[in-house]
Amino acid sequence: MNFLINSASGTLLALASLSGCAQQPTFAPAPGGEQVTITIKVPPDLAADSMRVMYRSAKCPSKESADGVPYEVDGFYPIEVQPQRQRQSDRYEAKLARNGGGACQWKLSNVTFGVSYQNTGRFGADVQSGRGGGVIAIFDDNYPQQRSYPDQTQDIVGNLLIQEDYYPWVDEEFLGPYRKQVRLLGDGDIYRSYRVPTAQRVDFEPALHAGYVVYSAGPKVKKEGNHTQFTYPDGSIIADGSSEPDFDKLQAIRLGQSK
Q1: Domain coordinates of the chain in residue numbers?
Q2: Distance CA 211, CA 229 (A)
Q3: What is the CA radius of gyration of the chain?
Q4: Cα angle at 227 between 135 and 210, to 5 degrees?
Q5: Residues 196-214: what's their mean pLDDT?
Q6: Taken in order 183, 185, 191, 197, is the CA torsion positive or negative?
Q7: What is the Cα–Cα distance from 25 to 3, expressed in whole angstroms?
Q8: How far are the Cα atoms of 116, 127, 138, 147, 248 from residue 13, in angstroms, in the given order?
Q9: DSSP secondary structure code for residue 121 in this structure
Q10: Residue 160 pLDDT exceeds 70
């Protein structure tokens, strides 16, 4: 069943699907209840992505199966939240209820949010916005829907401030459907994951080094020895079989260090 909900603060919660609740489904955070504040400092040319918020409920379990064996897990209640710009600043914010209330007593489980390129025109008319610049904040012991292997989640006590460097990565692929997109390259996975069970605030302040663009071009012919070619801001070209640019090399170029 789908619901359209508007929070008291005016943040739009888009269509959400409910899984596993046989009782009358409701999502009703109590007025004045505990909240978690998520803020994003958005650099020029980027945009704050919609937040994918997951609530879970032990009272309304979801029935699953593996190898034909049925089992139950906490029920799911996903919603989308559009962070709101704070006056005319570069900060965007959303306040999320820890307790979703209702018959299922929904509890905040995890939030996936981040930034992506909005202004791709500087890289060409056919360039699309790609992935990167994502964060997953986990508030309970359940696994988030988006995760990496091996798990690199960091455990945090209290509030969380994330300050990370990112570089524009323009990737052009020729094999299969032609694709050219600009992504955000950071130090690690596309999504940085944190377990923050006691946090009241999660602040994300990405630093975009827009003047240090790395370009990659995939092979046009599938042949042994043909590799993706990376062109770095200092003019160096590397095609060593890597699947993504060398973040440490970009840091060294920007900081005037040899790499």
Answers
A1: 35-255
A2: 20
A3: 21
A4: 40
A5: 98
A6: negative
A7: 9
A8: 20, 30, 19, 23, 39
A9: G
A10: yes
Contact call for residues 166 and 184 (beta carbons, < 8 A): yes
Q: Look-up: residue for tokens 């995890």?
A: 110
How far is it, in rounded angstroms, from Cα 65 to Cα 185? Answer: 37
Query: Any idea which residue has 């704070």 for tokens?
Result: 86
The stretch 98-116 carries a mean pLDDT of 95
Closest CA to 138 of 116, 156, 115: 156
At 248, is the secondary structure helix, strand, or coil? helix
Burial of 21 (0-12, 13-18, 19+ CB in 10 A): buried
Whole-number pLDDT of residue 148 = 67
CA–CA gap between residue 229 and residue 182 (Å, rounded) = 16
Interatomic CA distance for residues 110 and 12, integer angstroms: 18
33, 111, 135, 243 from 146: Cα distances, Å: 28, 10, 10, 21
Residue carrying the six token digits 């990659």 = 216
Give the pTM.
0.86
CA distances from 70 to 42, 64, 66 (A): 44, 6, 7
pLDDT value of residue 223 = 87
Pick 131 or 26 by higher pLDDT: 131
pLDDT at 10 over 90: no
User: Cis omega before residue 150 (within 30°)?
Assistant: yes
Residue of 161, 211, 169 whose CA lies nearest to 186:
169
Distance CA 129, CA 110 (A): 24
Query: Can you read off the two tokens belonging to residue 159?
Result: 């509030």
